Every structure is written in structure tokens, then in C-alpha cells.
Amino acid sequence: TVELVPGHVPPEEIDPADAKDAADRLRAGEGFAPEEQEKCDVRSGNDARDPASGPPSSGIVPGVDVAMVNLKGFDAHTREKIAENMPHAVAEHDVDEFIDLVSQTMRLDAVAGADPSLESAAKTIAESKAATPAHRACAKVLVKLCAKDPKEFKAKSKGVGLVVIRDGGIPRGEYLGAYCGELYPAWRWFEKEAAAQAVRRDVKRDDEVPTFYNAAVERDLHDPRGYDVLFIDGAVKGSVLTRASHSCQPNAEMRVRIREGKYSVEMVTTREVRTGEEICWDYRCQTDSDKEMRRAICLCGSKNCRVSYLHYNGESELAVFADENCA
Ligand SMILES: [Zn+2]
């Protein structure tokens, strides 16, 4: 469970001086705004060039705009297996639409409080008068596949996600809110991460893939106060956006803005998000562990799924970067 907080809260585990220091590092240089903020389109109504002004709105509200529910998804392999087994008479784009409809039906089941399984979603579509004949034909086949091989044709739990429930959906370019949580200066963050890793190793669970309820906030290179980096941890205390899932085909993105003189990591929609769709962004997390990457199976279920939600930046890439930048 997570306690929802409207703004950044000082980290509890670190001493008060560090918490104060972290909050101070969030302050921007006098009157400074990043280039993107200065160039933004003020007519859109959800952005502001003036770094002294506040956010355009309170952002999305759970229970009003989105439902925070436990969701299930399927990996790229399962999506491929489903597509392979669909009737040959059904066109490829109809198959793609059908698989997206399965994901959508599972989300709606979750919002309704039902168990979001692949089989029940297929049954719903097979019997739906609103579905096209092609989609119904695909659904009938999927029902049989689920019964025949329930291990292969199975959705897996992907934790809490945010499903849009607002009538009419959320338009493109809407401000969804700030990514808030406990704030850590970089050195404390890495100390904490190292300690958490040691605990996982001690209890022989070092094979666990870390969960990502955190984001980094960087102070702009051109900020008169200089470059800096802070970490926002939303694992225990976080705003609703810390629960948005990863997708390889996202509909929202993070951006850095200065609001009331302080750095803020915000989320905005990059396209219209219809009712029943999930708000998701591309985590773009990096790992230098090939093992970790292979275990981080993505369950976004999208056609463009990259299989893992982690990007592998192999040792050689790191070496190249060091050669070029640390001479
Ligand atoms: Zn994916």
C-alpha cells in the first residue's frame, strides 16, 4: 500500500539536515526556466513559461479521472502466440485490433472488480454484440486456446496501474500531475540502494528485479545554481502518478518544469487516452546487468513491445562513454 501525498515529503529515513538539503536542491536559480519551458505553447493552457507560477491544475484524481487497480498483462511472446493461432481468414490488422481489445477488456474487468484473465476477456468478446465478426471469430479461438493450454495463454499480474474512467477520456497534452514522493540527495539515494541490495543478497533474493517507483530529477545544466540530481522515491509515500505502468507504446511522458521556483517532474499525455485505457509511460530504465534485463519481462502487451522493460547498456557502451567524456 502507498500513502498518497500531494507534494514532496522529506525522506523519513535520513536525518533532518539531509532532508532540508534535498528540498533546497530542488530550488531553481532566480528566474531561471529550462529552454523547453520558455518555448512552450502557452495557448494550450496546460503549460506556463513563467517559472514563478504554479501548476496548471491539481492533475488527475483517483476515483474521478482514473481507477487505481491491480492489473494483468501479457508479454511479447504470448502476444505472438495469440497472433499465430488466429484464423487465417482474419486480416493482420484485425488480429492486432483484437489483441488490443483483449487488453482493454481485461482492464475493464479489473475496474469492475473482476479477475482480469485472458480467458474471461476472450469469452466477453466472443459474446459481445458490439464486437466485429472478425473479433468475435478470434475470441472464440482464444477461448479454446486458453482451455487447451492455460500455461501458455495466460495473463500475469503487473501490479497497480491507472485506468482512465473519466467520461470522454483525457485529451492530448493534458497535465496529469507531478511525480511526488520522498526526496533524496543522490549520495543518500545510492547508499539506500546499496543497503537494499545487500539485504536482498543476504536473504538470497538478489535475483529479484527491482521495482521502479522512483524517478530522478535533474537541475538543468544552464541553471545558474549549477547541475544537480535528486531522487524521488514513491515506494512508500508517493503521488498517484508513481503508480503509472511502463509501456513500450506509451501515451504519456515525463517532463521537467519549474513551478513556483522549484523543479518538478510532471506527467503529460502525448495523445488522447480514451476511457478504459491505461495511463503509461516509457520508463527508459537502463541496466548494465544482462541477467536483470532478461528477467525484467515487459507485460505491456503492445504490438511494439521490446520484451524487456529495461534497456541493456552493456559494459562496452559504458566504456565508450567513459572514454569520450571522462578523459
Ligand atoms: Zn512492452
Automatic annotation (TrEMBL):
<feature type="compositionally biased region" description="Basic and acidic residues">
    <location>
        <begin position="36"/>
        <end position="50"/>
    </location>
</feature>
<dbReference type="InterPro" id="IPR001214">
    <property type="entry name" value="SET_dom"/>
</dbReference>
<dbReference type="Pfam" id="PF00856">
    <property type="entry name" value="SET"/>
</dbReference>
<dbReference type="InterPro" id="IPR046341">
    <property type="entry name" value="SET_dom_sf"/>
</dbReference>
<protein>
    <recommendedName>
        <fullName>SET domain-containing protein</fullName>
    </recommendedName>
</protein>
<feature type="domain" description="SET">
    <location>
        <begin position="139"/>
        <end position="284"/>
    </location>
</feature>
<feature type="compositionally biased region" description="Basic and acidic residues">
    <location>
        <begin position="17"/>
        <end position="28"/>
    </location>
</feature>
<feature type="region of interest" description="Disordered">
    <location>
        <begin position="1"/>
        <end position="61"/>
    </location>
</feature>
